[in-house]
Amino acid sequence: MNVVQSEKSLRSGVSRKLGTPGDWMTSDERRQVTSRSLSRGLMILGVHYVLYFATLIGALAPLPIWINVLSAVANGALIGLIFLIGHDTGHSSFVPGRNWNRWLTRLAFIPCIHSRSLWDTVHNRIHHSYANLKGYDYVWAPMSKAEYDASSRRRRALERFYRGPLGPLAYYAVEFWLKKLILPIAPEMRGEWKKHLPDTIFVLVVGFGMVALIGVVGHWLSPMRPLWLVMLIGWVLPYAVWNYLMALSIFLQHNHPKVPWFADKSEWSFYGGNIRGAAHVDLPMPFSFLRLFSWVMVHNAHHALPSIPIYNLPQAQKMLIEAYGDDIVRYKFTLGSYRAIFKACKLFDYEEKQWTDFEGRPTADPIDMRPSSERIEIVDMSGMANPTRRDGRGGLRVSNARRQMVQDEAAGRRSK
Questions:
Q1: pLDDT score of 325
Q2: How far apart are CA 314 and CA 244, in angstroms?
Q3: For 175, which DSSP code?
């Protein structure tokens, strides 16, 4: 069975719902994982904003420069953590109530200087509608060899830089923040520029007003320091740290030797784009201590059901793994995995479903798009040891039991 045929089989008959929430959780489980708490949400946001201002003061205060630099790095991480809250409120999944979520999104997007409505278009309406479908989803979308060869020398050099270990330093700021998330000037935004205007004004006045305030407070705290140094430590360095973490996170979530991309809408499916097209990244210390970072990197469940609050994603991801087993790409983030993924994921062969280097040489095996339940029959399990990995790979699958439970519940509802 070739890739196109297998993808079409996913959309035929009952398999059409493969990956959707009704295929891997019961209605009671769905209500449980999508439950939201206003008090918990406000507490999480409040704690992170206190830490943000504390690290900002540490970056600006008349302290030894190394303390200022460490505080600035921590402040950049806090910008990222607060952004994750805004990401959730942008999905209206963080607290109850649409208006609460909208205003909390604006508040959470002040440090990262993002327009709420522009983010809604770029992320919710484009990225989540057709995840990993090139031409629709442009977040870290890989070039094909033909596209790369047809590009200018400057564009090829830029792609080589972006897809190197230092690429995340510039990718998000250049390709998204400046072009798409402040002013409604990108082609996909211009037609609705009036709708975006209020949030654009808000981010220009409040967001950049915050940048100016950093300069004023920094000069007041450390009057002997030149303004350029105050701004370098108080805003440029934290913003660079945040940009790197943002670009790296979304790269790792959707680029991996086992994560597919699609060039043709007819071969894309919900299962292929949202279940197979995302990765579950286990973060080591100290990142695992930062709960919001570790929660957002269990990414498949978020794509399968964006209304799940970030603090309930681990619970939902566990159900997803029980349902689909090895179809969930999961790995532990290390320096070795970081280098290996950036080395392997340069270009993508959309016909073979295979990652290649810039010369078109395969760097990974072709991705078999059949669900693991269909692939399992060709695997010789005899002589295999019991699984020792915590995700249970290699052992008996529990997906059939979970999916049967969900199907039985649906059948019971229909018979009533």
A1: 87
A2: 24
A3: I
Question: Tens digits of per-residue pLDDT, 309-348?
Answer: 999 999 999 999 999 988 999 999 999 999 999 999 999 9
d(CA 56, CA 120): 28
Residue 273 CA: distances (Å) to CA of 18, 89, 178, 345: 11, 23, 27, 17
SS (H, E, C) 9-75: HHCCHHHHHCCCHHHCCCHHHHHHHCCCCHHHHHHHHHHHHHHHHHHHHHHHCCCCHHHHHHHHHHH
Residue 115: which of 218, 38, 35, 192 has the closest Cα? Answer: 192
For the chain, the residue count is 416
CA–CA separation, 77 and 71 (whole Å): 10
In terms of Cβ atoms closer than 10 Å to its own Cβ (0-12, 13-18, 19+), residue 391 is middle
- Give the pLDDT confidence score for residue 2 in this predicted structure: 35
- pLDDT at residue 181 above 50? yes
356: part of which helix (H) or strand (E)?
strand 354-356
* pTM to 2 decimal places: 0.85
d(CA 21, CA 27): 9
CB 130 within 8 A of CB 273: yes
What are the residues facing 280 on neighbouring strands? 298, 330
| 107/160 Cα distance (integer angstroms) | 36
Q: How many whole angstroms separate alpha carbon 42 and alpha carbon 163?
A: 37
The span from the CA of 229 to the CA of 304, in Å, is 45
What's the pLDDT score for residue 289?
A: 66
Query: H or E element: which one contains 219?
Result: helix 208-221
Q: Specify the pLDDT at position 319.
A: 93
Q: What is the mean pLDDT of residues 45-74?
A: 97
Q: Most distant CA pair in the chain: distance in Å? A: 77
Contact 78, 59 (CB under 8 A): no
Q: Is the model's pLDDT at 301 over the cut of 90?
A: yes
pLDDT surpassing 50 at residue 243: yes
Token pair, residue 396, equals: 């008996």
Give domain limits for the chain: 34-254
pLDDT of residue 380: 39
Q: How many CB atoms lie within 10 A of CB 74?
A: 18
**What is the pLDDT, as a whole number, of residue 244?**
95
Residue 223 burial class via C-beta count within 10 angstroms: exposed 0-12, middle 13-18, buried 19 and up: exposed
